[in-house]
Write a structure and sequence with these properties.
Layout lengths: L1 E7 L2 E9 L23 E3 L4 E3 L6 E6 L2 E5 L1 H5 L8 E9 L11 E9 L4 H14 L1 E9 L2 E10 L2 E7 L22 H13 L12 H14 L19 H17 L6 H29 L1
Parallel strand pairs: 1-7
Antiparallel strand pairs: 1-2, 2-8, 3-4, 5-6, 7-9, 8-11, 9-10, 10-11
Helix pairs in contact: 3-5, 5-6
Length: about 300
């Protein structure tokens, strides 16, 4: 989807970019409710009161309320940017130092494919980045927008990840956060550490799947076949866990039991099991005074 070159120093490496991800979501078409015919989206001009074609539209920037200036394709091409057809590497930084700031807010990942003429330089750059544990910070223009990006070794190639500009990232001041963090008891911390340790393991992306999409596909396939769809049971209401220790202990037990089976428990099932165990612990705690009153 993009062709240009990686530039750093006097080195030029011709490359192509390919989207590294694709959306697997289920898309729907808008239908007319009465006859289920597919509706059409029209471009309507309220001043002339008529439907116009997309070819009759131009780009406009609103510089004041209701006031626009037209920006043509020629204007966009005339923007003096050297990154229109090149990936300009600005600096190299240790990969461990890119955990803060804009690098956490990624936009899109692209595979980089080197042209044959630049194979040696491409893999030389990849090897050095890999050996030194470095990330290349760069800028590139994609779809009429200059993007901040990072280049990292990935498998047999390199991955270019576009990032948000710092001024695009909202400040934490917009959140309602406490002035001071709540005090954590040592017993609660220890139990939380046990829970995290019980749930710690090697990340295997293949172990995860989009359960919502699969369930939705089953409903669609049933409707196509003329079958009656089965109602999904309502989600269990979240329990009001006043006793944090009881919740942590129940969660640890659920996580340990899950690991003992030898197979990873789906996250949803693990949470449900943990909630039930925690609720049972709460019920047992609430029942103690009643037992004492009966005994008295």
């Amino acid at each position: 989807m993009w062709r240009g070159a990686i530039q750093f120093g006097l080195v030029t490496i011709p490359v192509k970019l390919y989207l590294a991800t694709e959306s697997k979501g289920i898309s729907f078409n808008m239908l007319h409710k009465t006859d289920q015919s597919r509706i059409q989206m029209k471009i309507y001009c309220p001043v002339d009161d008529e439907v116009i074609s997309r070819g009759d539209t131009v780009k406009g920037f609103e510089y004041a309320p209701g006031q626009y200036v037209v920006v043509t394709d020629e204007d966009l091409e005339a923007v003096p940017l050297k990154t229109v057809r090149s990936i300009e590497i600005e600096q190299f930084t240790p990969r461990t130092h890119v955990d803060d700031g804009a690098v956490k807010f990624v936009k899109q990942a692209y595979y980089i494919e080197p042209d044959k003429i630049g194979l040696k330089a491409f893999y030389l750059l990849k090897d050095v980045l890999e050996d030194k544990g470095l990330t290349a910070i760069c800028k590139v223009v994609i779809k009429d927008r200059e993007a901040l990006a990072a280049i990292d070794p990935f498998s047999k190639t390199m991955l270019l990840t576009t990032l948000h500009w710092p001024d695009e990232i909202r400040a934490l001041g917009e959140l309602e956060l406490p002035a001071e963090e709540p005090e954590i008891k040592s017993a609660e911390r220890k139990m939380a550490e046990q829970l995290i340790e019980a749930m710690t393991g090697e990340f295997d992306p293949a172990a995860y799947k989009d359960e919502y999409r699969e369930a939705l596909l089953q409903i669609i396939e049933a409707k196509v076949a003329g079958e009656e769809t089965v109602a999904v049971p309502e989600a269990e209401p979240a329990t009001n866990l006043v006793d944090l220790m009881a919740a942590l202990e129940a969660s640890v037990k659920a996580a340990v039991d899950s690991r003992a089976t030898g197979a990873p428990t789906p996250v949803g099932a693990a949470k449900s099991k943990s909630r039930k165990a925690a609720a049972a612990a709460d019920d047992a705690e609430d029942a103690k005074p009643a037992r004492r009153r009966k005994s008295a």
